[in-house]
Design brief:
The protein is an alpha+beta fold. It has 2 domains: about 190 residues, no CATH class; about 90 residues, Arc Repressor Mutant, subunit A (Orthogonal Bundle), CATH 1.10.10. About 30% of the residues lie in helices and about 30% in strands. The chain contains 8 helices and 15 strands. The strands form 5 sheets. The chain has a 4-stranded mixed beta sheet with strand order 1-5-9-8. Strands 3-4-6-7 form a 4-stranded antiparallel beta sheet, with no helix packed on it.
């Protein structure tokens, strides 16, 4: 893919989004770039696949505070949406971005109490210290790249009338790789606002994978063994499938889910027909009420 080359400035100042529809990149949505665990994950994520005639790989290594999580990715969603909105309005953009923390929290469905600001700072730290190695490119260039999601961050504080020292705004410098994704808006898909109500990391990751792959199809299916790898989880397929069953019962925003054996029915193996032992997740768009 060829990235757009926008006019760049030293500092891009984000604006307050009105009823924002946040957007995510199709690779970040569908591949295991983030931990889906709430407790700090200190083991790396390793993933590879063959696409066409190329081997693609991802290795995500933790920093001192563990891997960046799928909840930390909410900040990236917010920043990406800001860049896309600016490009749509022919504004100049930059990989150095300034924004109000309160606006980011509100846009991603967070509370705005003191604890949320501390969690926000922790998220920035994980995004800064997590290291990604991959050959998935944001341009036509074939390359192996290593980066942190953020090159740097600065939280600016203000003193209230009561004398309290509180976080007010934030300035981040995103990686070149991430900026390449930001400026290629054709790869972005909108996220249902109900996504931010999902409490489980597996639910959030599953939503992104389904959102990317179902598209305009009436049905999409994937083996749970393959799905496990896309989610970057450590547990075995049997336990993973058990966890999926709970999500199937609860459902996902906009999608109907079903777990089944080979939906094509019987397979012929060695001259005898038998039901496949492989389990599939089958996804269909949820019918909208008239």
């Amino acid at each position: 893919m060829t990235a757009t080359k926008p006019r760049q400035i030293e500092l891009f100042v984000a604006s307050q989004l009105e009823a924002p529809s946040l957007r995510d990149d199709i690779d970040i949505m569908s591949l295991p770039f983030f931990s889906i665990e709430k407790t700090p994950r200190r083991e790396p994520i390793e993933f590879e696949r063959i696409t066409g005639d190329r081997r693609q790989y991802i290795r995500v290594s933790p920093g001192e505070y563990g891997l960046a999580t799928i909840w930390d990715n909410d900040i990236i969603l917010y920043l990406r949406t800001q860049i896309i909105e600016a490009l749509n309005r022919d504004r100049e953009v930059s990989k150095r971005i300034s924004f109000h923390i309160h606006d980011c929290l509100v846009a991603t469905g967070r509370r705005t109490g003191g604890r949320e600001y501390e969690l926000f700072k922790e998220a920035l730290t994980r995004l800064k210290t997590t290291t990604v190695l991959t050959n998935i490119s944001t341009s036509d260039e074939i390359a192996d790249e290593g980066f942190g999601w953020l090159e740097s961050f600065k939280i600016k504080r203000r003193r209230t009338a009561a004398g309290a020292d509180v976080m007010a705004s934030c300035e981040v410098v995103i990686s070149d790789w991430l900026f390449g994704l930001f400026i290629n808006s054709r790869r972005a898909l909108t996220i249902d606002s109900a996504y931010f109500d999902l409490q489980g990391g597996l639910e959030r990751k599953l939503y992104g994978i389904v959102r990317k792959h179902l598209g305009q199809q009436s049905m999409w299916q994937i083996g749970t063994d393959t799905l496990k790898d896309l989610c970057g989880v450590k547990r075995d397929v049997r336990r993973f499938t058990y966890d999926l069953k709970k999500i199937v019962v609860r459902g996902l925003p906009g999608f109907e889910l079903e777990l089944t054996k080979d939906p094509r029915g019987f397979k012929v193996v060695g001259g005898a027909a038998r039901i496949s032992k492989r389990t599939y997740l089958v996804v269909r768009p949820r019918a909208r009420l008239a």
